[in-house]
Amino acid sequence: MISTKKLTSSSAAFNSYLNAYVPHEVAVALWQDEYTKTEPLVYVGEQVEEGQIIARDSRSLCQIHSPVPGKVEKFSVISLPNGKTGPCLTIKTEGAFSFLGRPRKKQQWDFKFADQLIRDIGEKGIVNTFYKPEPLSRQLMQQKLRKENRTIFLRLYDLDPTNCADSFIAKNYMPQILEAMSILAHIVEPSAVYCLYDKASNIKEDAAAMNILFNTVPLHFIPVDVSKYPSGGTFDILNLVRHFVKAPQELSISRKDLFIDSMTALSVYEAIVLDQPSMTRFVSVGGEALAESKIFKVRIGTPIKNLIAECGGFCSQPSKILINGRIYGSAISTFDTPVTKYTKSITVLPKRLLDFLPTSPCIRCGSCRKICKAELQPDKLYMQYMKKMNLSSDEMKMTLLCSECRLCNMVCPSRLPLFQTINEIKKIAETHYED
Ligand code: SF4
Ligand code: SF4
Fold first, then answer.
1. Which residues form the domain of 319?
2. Among 3, 180, 352, 396, which residue's Cβ finds the most Cβ atoms within 10 Å?
3. What's the predicted TM-score (pTM) here?
């Protein structure tokens, strides 16, 4: 574990949010998660309303809605926040908003069956952003099919400590998050719900008043020392819960359970209680190359250059743009990249911080082995993979224990892509050794 003190930003600018200006044009990516590929339902020149379904996947797991009212201008291929390229449709903003600025009436949901709620979550386009973006409705269907005990875990802080969107939402929207968790508990019928929160925050006290929502399912709050990294991955959370409960041997929890972050919980609340599709995100924008740092509530499809302009532009020459944090993030090459449902942060780094240093051969310092909590040998696995040597089945299976914390990369003085290599081996191992 490492201390996050040097990594985190304690900027006062991240204590409140601004509504970003509605852009005159949005670029809505048709791939808003890692599993569904949607097809457009509109044509160029068509007039669309705010919240209208504009793209759908074949199983309606995660539909896409127009974040603005306007006219469909064009279809094109754009750079996405995950560093890949993909199709998008551009909508020119014009006409009256159906949701923006209009108060929403709370809907009753407790009389609905689980299947109906899952369908609503798919129709509203909710993506679970706990780790890799995935349609929540797909995960809920998988949970319903599981015969064994089910558990829901809610992370109320950021996976990457250089982000702040999830902890910001947890701090400001706790009643909404807990109502969302009771909706998910109604669907999944878990044996318990665990809410993991930053022990330095006062979240638990806020939450106690909402326990009434959980009259049938045990709700546990677990304080976490988030000043230590890693603490937010699936493996970390399972370990924290095992450590916290009195009789861990009686616990039946696993990676197959449902893991949710604050952002996803808030989206569930908006979808089910406010009957509102997924059209906005909270995104933090900062980094040493920007004049100011801010958190925005922003329309999906907004180009990130608009948010940078709202931060007062650059204070030094930008050299690298990172989406979703300095540890877990992806680098992108253009400021035209739009915000998607899985965008949580934008970090712009200046040239002076990025002296290019090439990789060099392993010096056998042992740092990667020492820091790896899964007790892997990242240097050895890297060498074997690069030399195309066959790995034993035991070595392959061991990679399944990798928690994807990336600490091996962080400590390697030779800057070798250890995590990326182990992840490649892990993908092969998953197809062979996981049921
Ligand atoms: S191999 Fe690297 S990424 Fe995987 S658990 Fe070990 S240190 Fe973390
Ligand atoms: S940290 Fe890097 S240089 Fe050191 S043993 Fe591991 S791979 Fe080799």
1. 2-103+277-352
2. 180
3. 0.92
